[in-house]
Write a structure and sequence with these properties.
Elements (H helix, E strand, L loop, with lengths): L1 E2 L9 E3 L2 E3 L3 E3 L8 H10 L3 E8 H5 L3 H6 L10 E5 L3 H13 L5 E6 L4 H4 L11 H15 L4 E6 L1 E3 L2 E2 L1 H11 L4 E4 L13 H10 L5 E4 L5 H11 L3 E4 L9 H9 L4 E2 L4 H19 L2 H8 L3 H4 L7 H7 L5 H8 L40 H5 L1 H4 L7
Parallel strand pairs: 4-5, 4-13, 5-6, 6-7, 7-8, 8-11, 11-12, 12-13
Antiparallel strand pairs: 1-14, 2-3, 9-10
Helix pairs in contact: 1-11, 4-6, 6-7, 9-10, 11-12, 11-15
Length: 386
Amino acid sequence: MSAIPTISHTPALTIGSLELDVPVVLAPMAGITNTAFRRLCREFGVGLYVSEMITSRALVERNKETMRLINHHESETTRSIQLYGVDPKTVSEAVTILVAEDRADHIDLNFGCPVPKVTRKGGGSALPWKQDLFRDIVEGAVKAAGDIPLTVKMRKGIDADHLTYLEAGKAAEGAGVASIALHARTASEFYSGQADWSAITRLKETVTNVPILGNGDIWSGEDALRMMDETGCDGVVVGRGCLGRPWLFGDLAAAFTGSPTRFTPTLGQVATTFRRHAELLAEFFESEERGCRDIRKHVAWYFKGYPVGGDLRASLATVQSLDQLDDLLATLDWDLPYPGADAEGQRGRAGSPKRTVLPDGWLNSRTIGVTERGTLTETEADTSGG
């Protein structure tokens, strides 16, 4: 651990009936924020830890994989689930299931996903362009949620010429959401460039009755403090910054409570955490082989900046059992110190700006047409799981 000067900040955040010790939320990330990763992050820090995105239609149809994904470990005392959908009726039905069956303490709606398979259906970051559709989904979901806090996460808009976040923020506020999170990029920017934190400031100035959470380019506790100081937002949402660094949530807790202490792990501490992650994945998938297969994608993130040779990295990225993983990790020099800046900063694929894939004619009107509404149920028919 090392001491880094920092400033203190009021740590509490209230989202509906939820009281968070620190204003920190784990961003939903497909294939990442499963129960295993959420448990690992919680072992290092505190906050609200949201599930992978769950498809509303798959939940309503009780797809086997989806029903498994919405389960929480007994240690997850605040069960948080993010839903994706484009049909107001289906989203409301999905929320009703979660509430009626006591499966969630917090529900988030995804209006921020920029990936083509989502936006080409009019979902994710494409959906707020249709103002009436966005309003219908959010109002219906809030009503179905009842006393369960329902929140939304969104982006600035589709691209610089088609911004939606201010109108969507006011609509969500009017619908009664418990908080609004803004990833300060457009869909077309994907994760490239620098997040536009000034947009978070504008949203905070526009929406005054519910907490506003900022998302984008938070790689450290200092980044989180700076975002809140610069934008006036009420909390932060952390995504790619915690990839291979679940201890970031400990750093965030320290920063928000005024402690200068930060976690600077030796290579051995990183190896131990990596091994713990693999073990939790094996438990989550109920398969050691599948857990080891899943941990492979985390190798580059965990060992970023550490002197781990290419051959060993390649072996870790093809590991097939926990015993094999133990043998590989044993070859590391566990006493090697934290490499500093080389292990910090951006992680995950930033991508490059690209034209957002949208349904034909999507940008022609800010309202959803009769024909488009008629195809929503068909569009929702994605039963592949989360």
